[in-house]
Amino acid sequence: MANTKLKTFVNGFLRENPLLVLNIGLCSSLGVTTSIFNGLGMGVGMTFVLVMSEIVISIFRKLIPSAIRLPVFITVIAAFTTIVQLVLNAYVESLYNALGVFIPLIVVNCIIMGRVEAFASKNKVGDSILDGLGMGIGYTIVLVAISLIRELLGGGTLFAGTALKIDVLPEAYRIGIFNSAPGGFLVFGILAACLQAWKQYKQNKADEAEIAALKEADKPAEVEAPAAAAQPTEGGAQ
């Protein structure tokens, strides 16, 4: 049971990462990741909406008629998205202005709609919380990774927009393409390729281990075969 819950929680980290593996919710990952501050803020906000929506949908899953489940899902997601929007506008105005239209677009984020439909509407509250947290954390990790590369190479800084801002690269060494959409596509593609290469490496190692185990299991049979052939047959010469 504990292993099942742990598997549900970590599923979104790598095995079914919503961005690098499932390739959903890409608009925000390319649009807001020009700085670590923006990527982390978007990830935290999306995770909050995802977890709270999964909780509500899971609690009332048996009361929601199947014919109107999608409008109900959208209403729930929109309510929590509005909370995030109002809180950011009130307390973190710089992040609210930087994320812009991508905050209300959380309502139609494929990750949230996909998880409430595929998981929360069919599972208990505890499992839904673990699923939402795992998917949200996996989404946030990728956003921060993309943001780090783009901000460092494109802007030459780290943690821009915060009191921790660090100037790393002189302006002459900065690569402007990483501040634009093509730079976002490039970084995303490289990270996705690295993950696929790592998964293929793990699969190859597992296949090699399985083949070695099968060969090891066949060895005793090969040794016993000559001994069996040497036994005298009934009625044969002694």
UniProtKB/TrEMBL annotation:
It is a multi-pass membrane protein. One of its GO terms (biological process) is electron transport chain. It holds the Pfam family Rnf-Nqr. Residues 218-238 are annotated as: Disordered. The gene is rnfE. This is Ion-translocating oxidoreductase complex subunit E. The lineage of its organism: Bacteria, Pseudomonadati, Spirochaetota, Spirochaetia, Spirochaetales. It is found in: Cell membrane; Endomembrane system. Residues 223-238 have a biased composition (Low complexity). Keywords: Cell membrane, Electron transport, Membrane, Translocase, Transmembrane, Transmembrane helix, Transport. It comes from Treponema bryantii. Part of a membrane-bound complex that couples electron transfer with translocation of ions across the membrane. One of its GO terms (cellular component) is plasma membrane. Belongs to the NqrDE/RnfAE family.
